[in-house]
Amino acid sequence: MNGNSPCLYTPPIPTQYRMTLTVGTHSAGHIRRITRRFLQDWDLEPLTDPVELATTELIANVYRHVPDRRCKLLLLKQPPGIRVEVTDAYGQLLPTPAESYPEPESESGRGLFLLDAMVDKWGVTPAPGGGKTVWFECGRRQS
Questions:
Q1: How far is CA 143 from the centre of its chain?
Q2: Is 43 left (phi over 0), alpha (psi -120 to 50) or beta?
Q3: Cβ-Cβ contacts under 8 Å for 136 (sequence gap 6 or more)
Q4: pLDDT averaged over the chain?
Q5: CB–CB of 82/52 below 8 Å?
Q6: DSSP 8-state assignment for residue 9
Q7: Sequence-distant (≥ 6) Cβ neighbours of residue 63 within 8 angstroms
Q8: Are 115 and 57 spatial neighbours (Cβ–Cβ below 8 Å)?
Q9: Whole-angstrom Cα distance, residue 49 to residue 36?
Q10: Alpha-carbon distances, residue 36 vs 125, 138, 139 (angstroms)
């Protein structure tokens, strides 16, 4: 079933989506489909590639680094684009890009470099009650 399908919602279209999940091996694919759907509904399709890639990176980091693999995802439509937040209860690992790019043979360490290259801005904030929220914003590029 390929192609465009109509919006799932009757007006008004929600301007945010929240989900609590335990990240598993197939979670990134499911979240990409959800994200793509909201970007279509919000008329933000040009942002699909960078938003899907960046969201996948944040979810993969939960899978790799958060012991219980639980997190909350927030997709928030905002002018002129989208803000995505992934919150977990594990505050010990605050993501920062490595000071230098990883060695070509390295199997990890490139994700935050990709995130930095693909989105307008991103950051990490302490979450209420412990943990952290890793977020990014991506907007329409002005021609």
A1: 25
A2: left
A3: 54, 58, 83, 84, 115, 119, 120, 121, 122, 123
A4: 85
A5: no
A6: S
A7: 23, 24, 25, 27, 28, 69
A8: yes
A9: 9
A10: 25, 14, 15
Rounded to an integer, what distance in angstroms lies between the CA atom of residue 38 and that of residue 122?
A: 20
Across residues 10-22, what is the average pLDDT? 89
Q: What percent of the chain has pLDDT over 90?
A: 60
The gap from C-alpha 64 to its chain's centroid, in whole angstroms, comes to: 15
With CA atoms as reference, report the closest residue to 70 among 86, 50, 55: 86
Angle at CA of residue 142, ends 138 and 143, nearest 5°: 140
| 0.70 exceeded by pTM | yes
- For 12-80, give the secondary structure using H, E and C: CCCCEEEEEEECCCCHHHHHHHHHHHHHHHCCCHHHHHHHHHHHHHHHHHHHHHCCCCEEEEEEEEECC
Token reading at 65: 């680094």
8, burial (CB in 10 Å: exposed 0-12, middle 13-18, buried 19+): exposed
Check residue 101 and report its DSSP letter: P
